[in-house]
Amino acid sequence: MKELPKTARAVIVGGGIVGCSTAYHLAKLGWDVVLLERKKLTSGTTFHAAGLVGQLRSNANITQLLGYSVDLYKRLEEETGQATGWKMNGGLRLACNHERWTEVQRQATTAHSFGLDMQLLSPKEAQELWPLMQVDDVVGAAFLPSDGQANPSDITLSLAKGARMAGAQIFEDTKVLSVDVEKGVIKGIETSRGRIDCSVVVACCGQWTRDFAKSVGVNVPLVPMQHQYLVTEPIPGVPRDLPTLRDPDRLTYYKEEVGGLVMGGYEANPLSWAVDGIPKGFHYTLLDSDFGHFEPLMELSLGRVPALETAGIKELINGPESFTPDGNFIMGEAPELKNFYVNAGFNAFGIAAGGGAGMALAEWIAKGEPPFDLWPVDIRRFGRPHFDSDWIRTRTKEAYAKHYTMAWPNEEHESGRPCRKSPLYEHLKADGAVFGEKLGWERPNWYADIENGEQQQDIYTFSRPNWHEPVGREHEAARSAAVLFDQTSFAKFTLKGPDAVDALSWIAANDVDKPIGTLIYTQMLNDHGGIECDLTCVRVAEDEYYIVTGTGFVTHDFDWISRNIPARMNVQLVDVTSAFSVLSLMGPKSRDILERVTRDDVSNESFHFGQARKIGIAGCPVHALRVTYVGELGWELHLPVEYATSVYAALHEAGKELGLRNAGYRAIETLRLEKGYRAWGSDIGPDHTPEEAGLGWAVKLKKNIAFKGRDAIEQQRTHGVKKMLATFVTDSDIILSGRETIYRDGVRVGWLSSGGFGHTLQKSIGLGYVRNSDGVDSDFVLDGHYELEVATERVPCEVHLAPLYDPKMLRVKA
Question: Cα-Cα-Cα-Cα dihedral of 628, 632, 582, 501, to 10°?
Answer without folding.
Answer: 20
